[in-house]
TrEMBL record:
Keywords: Membrane, Transmembrane, Transmembrane helix
Stretches that traverse the bilayer: 12-38
Species whose genome carries this gene: marine sediment metagenome
The protein's name: Uncharacterized protein
Length: 40
């Protein structure tokens, strides 16, 4: 990952935050689904 992205750093930061949030939501969803199925 190149660090010297100065001219579009804000756009990449927003996209990175969005992707990170989506990944976190998917991980929480799969963890809850897995615990539900393991509970049965």
């Amino acid at each position: 990952m190149p660090i010297r992205i100065r001219w579009k750093s804000k756009e990449y930061f927003g996209i990175g935050l969005l992707l990170l949030g989506m990944c976190g939501m998917f991980q929480l969803f799969f963890i809850f689904v897995g615990q539900y199925f393991l509970g049965i």
